[in-house]
Design goal:
The protein is of the alpha/beta class. It contains 12 helices and 12 strands.
């Protein structure tokens, strides 16, 4: 159980509907409804009565409301007592699709730890939809998410573009594709392809690139880091944003290389996302700023 869930229930009760509560909390109504349902399952009680005309507090929910309010008041008192230490010495949770891990994420973590030695950072690899759900529900403070240029940004999120790159084919230096200056779709179809699972932007991109054609053989995996390891072991080629390959230890050691795709102008954007909120914990605010600074350094370089 999370305090955000109790805050959401209190908002629904105060405003009288899921829709108005979702608007005030800057959440989508489905996300708010799912969060409430998770709390109901955990408590074993239907807190809301749901009808076509809307949702309102159930009789059981009204009985529990004073306890919910008491918990929220106690949390407020705890935060006030902790003061600035609460804002600084806490855990910051980051969801990532494992993009630009070496050039961006690792340097940011090192600099953040130097400035915040008592703050823990939890880094979780996940798909885009899982990260955005976690941000909406309070499970993540920040999210590193890829988008294709032209994609709509999620509602209720503050999105900051960090890096802008292009898709490249990642191969071993002894691969036939490494001998090419650029790789065409027909070339890619002739080798085993290591694709990202459905739910990743690069899965969508490769599906669009191949236009329904099928490679000689294909694997499916989670995230750029596993894809690069599979390439390094000689299992095939994969397509990733260039900022996920450049500077990688495997590339620096000569185990991996990359080639651009011919006749392709697609751009991949790495964005840093967080839920729109009036109050942001200082540690999360500082980590956000560290990502932005590092991205500017990479762009300037």
């Amino acid at each position: 159980m999370r305090t955000e869930q109790l805050e959401y229930i209190a908002a629904v009760t105060r405003l009288g509907s899921l829709r108005r509560a979702a608007d005030e909390l800057r959440l989508s109504q489905p996300a708010l409804s799912e969060t409430v349902r998770n709390l109901e399952r955990e408590l074993g009680v239907d807190l809301l009565e749901r009808k076509r005309s809307g949702a309102k507090m159930s009789a059981a929910g009204r009985e529990l409301l004073p306890h919910i309010v008491s918990v929220l008041e106690a949390v407020d008192r705890l935060r006030a007592a902790a003061g600035e230490q609460h804002r600084i010495s806490r855990m910051v949770r980051v969801g990532t699709v494992n993009a630009a891990t070496v050039p961006l994420l690792f340097p940011v973590l090192r600099s953040f730890r130097a400035a915040h030695p008592v703050t823990q950072v939890e880094v979780v690899g996940a798909q885009q939809t899982e990260i955005q759900r976690g941000l909406a529900e309070g499970g993540f403070d920040l999210g590193l998410v890829n988008h294709l240029d032209g994609d709509d940004m999620p509602a209720g999120m503050e999105c900051t573009q960090l890096l802008r790159g292009r898709p490249v084919v990642c191969v071993r230096p002894d691969s036939p594709l490494a001998a090419l200056a650029v790789v065409g779709v027909e070339d890619l179809l002739g080798v085993p392809l290591i694709a990202m699972r459905a739910g990743y932007v690069m899965h969508r991109y490769v599906h669009r690139l191949l236009s329904g054609r099928v490679p000689a053989f294909s694997y499916s995996t989670d995230g750029a880091e596993m894809g690069k390891l599979m390439v390094a072991e000689g299992l095939g080629a994969t397509v990733l944003p260039d900022f996920s390959v450049a500077g990688d230890p495997l590339e620096r050691s000569g185990v991996l290389t990359s080639r651009p795709l011919s006749d392709d102008t697609t751009r991949v954007l790495l964005t840093l996302q967080r839920r729109r909120a009036e109050s942001v914990p200082q540690a999360a605010h500082d980590l956000h700023a560290a990502f932005v600074r590092r991205a500017r350094e990479l762009t300037a370089g």
